[in-house]
Amino acid sequence: MKKISDLIQIVIFSAMIVGFMIVMFVLPDKDFSEQENRVLSGAPEITFEGFKSAQLMKDIESYMTDQFPLRDSWISMKSYSEKIIGKTENNGAFFCKEDTLISKFNAPDKELLDTNINAINSFVKSTDVPVYFSLIPGAVSVWEEKLPKNAQNYNQKALIEELYSKVECDTVDNYEVLDAHDDEYIYYRTDHHWTTLGAYYGYTAVADALGFEPVDIKEYKKTTVSDEFYGTIYSSSGVRWVEPDEIDMYIPAENKKAEKIVGENSIEREFYNYAMLEEKDKYTFFLSEKGGITPLLKLTSDCDNGKKLLIIRDSYSDCQVPFLTEHYSEIYLMDLRLYKLGVNNFIENNDIDAVLINYSVANFSEDENIKVWLGNN
Prior knowledge:
The chain is of the alpha/beta class. It has helices at 2-26, 48-53, 55-66, 71-84, 110-126, 139-142, 156-166, 174-179, 196-210, 232-237, 321-324, 343-349, 361-364, 369-373, and strands at residues 32-33, 38-39, 89-90, 93-96, 100-103, 131-136, 170-172, 223-229, 245-249, 256-262, 265-269, 296-301, 308-313, 330-334, 354-360.
């Protein structure tokens, strides 16, 4: 009887494998996963060179993994089962209180951090305009009380203090102001960015450092532009049981203009990209565009003081910079991942009054473009 039982199990298991293989090859390949917000691997090209280098087998493995039938459902089941058995994280995302997903922050590469700080110091010495350094802590630091008990995580607050002690320019104290409002909706529950409210509080910290009076939040009317936002942590974690986030706007687009700078030309574009609210990555509503990052943006408003600010930034600036347009006639947003024409030359050619280096702690800890484009001035 045992042999018959074993045989039946083998037959069933084999039938399942064959069935999945048939379904996989019958169904058309998916190019993009909306849930994971990434491009999926396509069928690999079979070549002798690929076979000889073992790259073909890696490509086949990626293809099989990405095109597996009901992939999103299996990923969701895996993360839910891990929560049931008591696990507190999956794919680098903590399962936190109030159905909040927070990205884990591992110990950074100290050598890269020192290199980036040295690059900033070199840049500060090479320019006559004032430079301000702004590090934005993540939810993993400010919302620490939401983390699972005994969550293993590197201390971002201590890291900010260490890096600020090494930099030779003025700094922006984002941590203090965000920590003072940690009971508010200052980070998304499904995404790694701060919300527009969090960005407002960061704006007040920038105002304090740069020496101007911020506009009181009571003077803004909050408008919710989407209540269906599932962000990057939702995509990577496999978690599918949480409610979506809201995206709010505090500043109207009237009397403000955005231009994409391409060489010596500029292309007018929307200040807020409402079309992106229909896409998976709804955060790109803020000054971003579908299909990639923008090397250089110019923002203008009805502020007539003639002041010009350059922000060397990551995506956290996208929802913060509209607040700053109340205080500068022109603001330039520069992304060092794509802008390669020289920072000092840009400052001189555009009569920039001040430079704000504005990064999240996580992005600054991994960005290798800083040492290239700021350290070689």
